[in-house]
TrEMBL record:
It is a multi-pass membrane protein. One of its GO terms (biological process) is membrane assembly. This is TLCD2 protein. It comes from Ramphastos sulfuratus. The gene is Tlcd2. It is found in: Membrane. Residues 34-230 form the TLC domain. Its main location: membrane. The keyword Transmembrane applies. GO terms for cellular component: plasma membrane.
Amino acid sequence: VSPGLLVVAGSFAAFRLLNRELERLVPPPPSARRNRWKWRNIWTSLAHRALPATHNSSPHRFCLHPELSEDLVGTHPPGAHSLVAVSVGYFLEDFVDMLCNQKLHQSWELLFHHSVVIVCFGIAVLLHQYVGFALVALLVEINSIFLHLRQILLMANLVHTTCYRLNSIINLGTYMVFRIATLAWMAHWLFLNRQNVPPATYAVGTAGMAIMTPMNIILLYRLLRSDFFK
């Protein structure tokens, strides 16, 4: 069994256990008790989203290893492969969690998103290649911290507070930097390096970008309409 797959399995089990214990660790406020599953799910997601922002994750690695920006196929620093494998385990856990607890018409967008991420990151884990490209993709998750804080504040009925307004501004700023700009850079890199990437992998990457980009533009429109143009 590949060590990467063992990390994926361990990550899945760890996030599953965290999900079950979160209601005890972070009790839901009265306004969120009618949807306890979503409360646990958001906090579990927040725990994963914090990983790319930690000392040993994506931004820090690009500062210490500038060669990553030149070779996203074969170059990756120690621990980067494990970080991507941990993310695959999380997305698998969240996929199963939504499938078991939410109606399909409510979760199909996220299930579709997770399927694309699992396939793309799974290729990096199994082949030990494109790990650098996956690390760039994990920069997107830095913005997801503020997206999930927004959901927590909404569920806690704190929408008319300074904290919510401040989070909305930071959320929009990080959305443009870590989500829109990052996806644009990834698409540009993929286009420039199309001759160096095997056709099958290039097709998967192109399809992933073609799916992710419209989804994120639509989400940006929803955020602007909800938090700024209401």
